[in-house]
Specification:
- Residues 1-23 and 419-449 have low confidence and may be disordered.
- The protein has helices spanning 30-46, 61-80, 105-108, 112-118, 120-147, 151-163, 165-171, 175-178, 183-190, 198-213, 217-237, 239-273, 309-313, 325-338, 343-358, 398-414, 433-438, 452-467, 485-488, 515-522, 553-564, 572-585, 598-609, 624-627; strands at 56-58, 86-87, 96-97, 363-366, 369-374, 477-479, 501-504, 535-539, 542-547, 587-592, 613-615, 618-622.
- The strands form five sheets. It has a four-stranded mixed sheet with strand order 7-10-12-11. A two-stranded antiparallel sheet has the order 1-6.
- With 628 residues, it is an alpha+beta fold.
- The protein is 49% helix and 8% strand.
């Protein structure tokens, strides 16, 4: 995820990281257009199994339903002027605190035209494409402008940063983790090599940080941790540069904090103290850790991946954040040894190693078995904010670290003169490039006897051999029940007056797949429904986090029927409770669409409220006479 590699701070007099900005033309070149087009084409290819397939969702289907709903909600906030931080469309009658959930307003608001014109599925797929390709493009731009002189090196580095296995795994479910395109510009501002225009760049930094909050707060936490660790490691590696750059860096951070704080004061208050706020998480984040063996394994969605081994090494398919394969790790070790003299490389190595060990969680596991060794994450488990993040996601910090190391090494190899020693003029960090490869001093001498082309080919081949097994395959999809025509075509409107709700059956599904969320998203939030897939408080007087709304007795009864396939014996007490629950939800009509073990659920609803009837592909129960 966010990586500390996005620095342009020079490495002192001994080893500058980048040439003066004025020496680097910034015009758009044909190669830039080709690289951007390539990234976009690859991102479209990875989403190809779902375009034009409304009956398919990516593998973590309930997460896609949630994000489609969030995109629809953002569009509604834009077009209807509704509060973007809270919604009453789900979890009737209480509503949902959107600021306390992954509302991705930073994606949903710009994508409003796509959502309105083509629907939430298309908007979600566009968001995935923008997240993957946009992240790769942002790192490519930063690498090309600050860290390397070769567009080829920058393109390969951007490819790793945007399309590593962890990025593809997250993109299939978690837009807030895959959308990392703001990380490079934020880091570029924090670690700017110049010491001028502190206020201007501080303001820009504050604006980007505020925007990132509305894309993904968890990513910002990782970004801050990685940047802080990088700053410390770089300062230890090059104290002279650190002393010279520290005042301006602290000034930018101070101005940025003031700007971001002013913009985020109310949204953050709403998140932590507003209606529907909660405390903690509805799951044990510490249990989501990686197996040490996962770092050398192949992810499911790669050309060499399979669906069995990754399942033993990660908590779920969306958290395959560390599957770099042995080749890329060997390349990274060689690069660190080769370019060790650069403070930038030493700092990157420190941050990557720190992130990797933190992702192992409380207790280190290897090949599915606990070693009993305590993991460094124990030191952070009680730190506010960090105690809420998923440990497995620390490995995402390693992704851009590896991408930048690969780019630096390719740039160094390409900087070698085709014949003889020396470096290509104007290439940043090329000083000593032939030295490191030939083991001799710079300039002539023995270096002149080492042709650059074979070294370029050898190193290029090594990088290709390491990266090709990581080539991603299209994101897996799973089938889903379509939205019933009764709901999709608006037949429900004849049953639901203003102020009343449509209740999908079964209602209030907690962490399970939520028809209410899915149907609401695909119809543009056309109706109000109870329950849904979100995080909220356990009760009005208990802010402890839980998935979805607290279960009413009728919801629990119907969910048991759906899970077991057996219709329970319904008593008069159950019927009276059903009427009370329907009144609480302000229900007008119950609707059952496609559902595994749906017959048991239908019989249970019949026993509770009377027989329903089939209308436009759905079973419908008009409960207005019961509720009044």
């Amino acid at each position: 995820m966010a990586a500390p590699a996005a620095v342009g701070a020079p490495g002192g007099r001994r080893q500058p990281v980048a040439p003066p900005v004025a020496a680097r033309p910034r015009r758009v070149r044909s190669v830039d257009v080709a690289v951007v087009a390539g990234y976009l084409g690859l991102a479209v290819l990875l989403t190809s199994r779902q375009w034009g397939r409304p009956d398919r969702l990516f593998h973590q289907d309930n997460d896609q339903m949630l994000f489609e709903w969030m995109l629809a909600r953002a569009a509604r906030a834009v077009t209807a002027g509704e509060n973007p931080l809270h919604s009453a469309a789900l979890n009737a009658p209480d509503g949902v605190n959107l600021m306390a959930n992954t509302s991705v307003l930073g994606l949903g608001v710009p994508l409003t035209p796509v959502t309105l014109l083509f629907g939430t599925q298309a908007a979600f797929l566009v968001a995935v494409v923008v997240s993957l390709a946009g992240t790769a493009i942002a790192w490519y731009v930063l690498l090309a402008r600050r860290l390397v002189g070769s567009r080829v090196a920058a393109a390969v580095g951007g490819l790793v940063c945007g399309f590593a296995p962890g990025m593809v795994a997250q993109a299939g479910a978690h837009l807030h983790m895959a959308a990392q395109f703001l990380a490079p510009p934020i880091l570029a501002l924090v670690f700017r090599p110049g010491t001028d225009r502190v206020r201007r760049h501080g303001v820009a930094l504050g604006l980007l940080v505020a925007y990132q909050v509305f894309v993904g707060e968890e990513l910002l936490v990782f970004l801050a941790l990685a940047a802080g660790a990088f700053a410390v490691a770089y300062a230890l590696a090059d104290r002279a540069a650190a002393r010279r750059l520290a005042p301006a860096l602290l000034g930018r951070l101070g101005v940025g904090a003031l700007v971001a704080g002013a913009l985020l004061a109310y949204p953050l208050w709403f998140q932590f103290l507003g209606p529907g706020h909660y405390q903690g998480m509805p799951f044990h984040a510490r249990g989501f850790q990686l197996d040490a063996a996962s770092f050398t394994a192949s992810a499911r969605q790669t050309v060499l991946g399979d669906g069995y081994v990754p399942g033993l090494l990660t908590p779920n398919p969306t958290e395959e954040n560390s599957f770099f394969g042995p080749g890329l790790l060997v390349v990274a070790v060689v690069v660190v040894v080769w370019l060790w003299r650069r403070p930038l490389v030493r700092a990157l190595a420190a941050v990557g190693l720190l992130a990797a060990v933190l992702s192992l969680g409380d207790t280190v596991r290897v090949d599915g078995a606990s070693t009993g060794l305590p993991g460094p994450y124990r030191l952070l488990a009680g730190v506010p904010l960090l105690d809420l993040v998923v440990p497995a996601r620390f490995a995402l910090i390693c992704v851009p670290v590896l991408g930048v190391l690969v780019a630096l090494s390719l740039d160094q190899a390409l900087a070698l003169a085709p014949v003889g020693g020396g470096a290509v003029p104007g290439v940043p960090g090329a000083e000593g490039g032939a030295v490191a490869l030939s083991g001799t001093g710079s300039g002539g001498g023995a270096a002149a006897d080492q042709p650059g082309v074979p070294v370029r080919l050898l190193w290029g081949g090594a990088v290709a051999a390491a990266l090709l097994p990581l080539a991603p395959t299209p994101i897996r999809t799973v089938p889903t029940w379509p939205v019933p025509a009764f709901v999709a075509d608006g037949g429900w409107r004849a049953y639901v007056p203003a102020g009343r709700t449509l209740v999908p059956v079964p209602p209030v599904t907690g962490a399970g797949v939520s028809p209410a969320t899915f149907w609401s998203a695909r119809t543009g939030l056309a109706f109000t429904a109870p329950g849904g897939y979100f995080i909220g408080p356990s009760a009005a007087a208990d802010p402890t986090a839980r998935w979805g709304a607290p279960d009413r007795p009728t919801a629990a009864l119907l969910r048991r029927a759906a899970e077991t396939g057996e219709a329970p014996v319904v008593t008069d007490a159950d019927r009276r409770q059903a009427v009370a629950d329907l009144r609480h939800w302000r229900a007008a009509v119950l609707v059952q669409g496609g559902l595994h073990r749906g017959e048991a659920v239908r019989r249970t609803v019949d026993a509770l409220v009377g027989p329903g009837r089939e209308v436009d592909g759905a079973w419908v129960w008009d409960v207005r006479p019961l509720v009044g």
